[in-house]
Amino acid sequence: QVQVVESGGGLVQAGGSLRLSCVVSGRISSINVMGWYRQAPGEQRDLVASITSGGSTNYATSVKGRFTISRDAKNTVYLQMNSLKPEDTAVYYCKFQAYWGKGTLVTVSS
Predict the structure, then answer these.
(1) CA pair distance 83, 80, nearest whole angstrom
(2) pLDDT per residue over 58-104, tens digit each?
(3) Contact by Cβ (8 Å): 46, 36
């Protein structure tokens, strides 16, 4: 069994910052790619950023230059979100292989 748990969401004003964390635990042989996705009300779930075990990163165009994904040596991945905009408001989900967390809500007020 694998558990994926996100934390760090909240309410922030436009221009502010938040740092999300995602911890993966359980029966894990190796962690290759981990990713952050987000889903706004009425919208589909889209990739925000991903990172490989080698540190290669990929970002959605809308967050490039504002968001940074990173990971530690164990099982935690982070998403540093700066210069937040109201359109960043969404539930943010962490994904590891076929496993999803329950999400953490980020609300950016104008």
Answers:
(1) 10
(2) 999 999 999 999 998 788 999 999 999 999 999 999 999 889 999 99
(3) no
